[in-house]
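[agent] plan:
  1. take the single chain provided in the ticket
  2. run structure prediction with default settings
  3. attach structure tokens to the ticket
  4. add a short note for the reviewer (M.T.)
[agent] executing step 1
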Amino acid sequence: MIDWIVAVAFAVAIIYKINKNRDLLKTFTKTQIFCVAVSYIAATIAAFVCIYFFGNWIASFVQNSFIRFIIFFAVIITTMFVCISILNRALKKITNGVLPGK
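[agent] step 2 finished; step 3 output follows
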């Protein structure tokens, strides 16, 4: 049941963001909108794969649960920083500097 609630909340959040930025989306071509969507999906998948597989692999070498948590948290922060910076550069090229905003 909780899975459905999370899925519906995610869909509502996406629809809200699209409606909120409707004027901005009208300035882009369909190709740009498609490329932006693919970029977000690719960044999300890349972050998930890095955090889940690499984070668990690195954390498996440590026996202490507190240090394991710190290592896993560092992997999450590093992965998010790298993925967001790559995503911002890609969005800037795709949208000719309009996105990612200020």
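[agent] step 4 note for reviewer: Residues 30-59 form the longest helix (30 residues).
[agent] ticket updated
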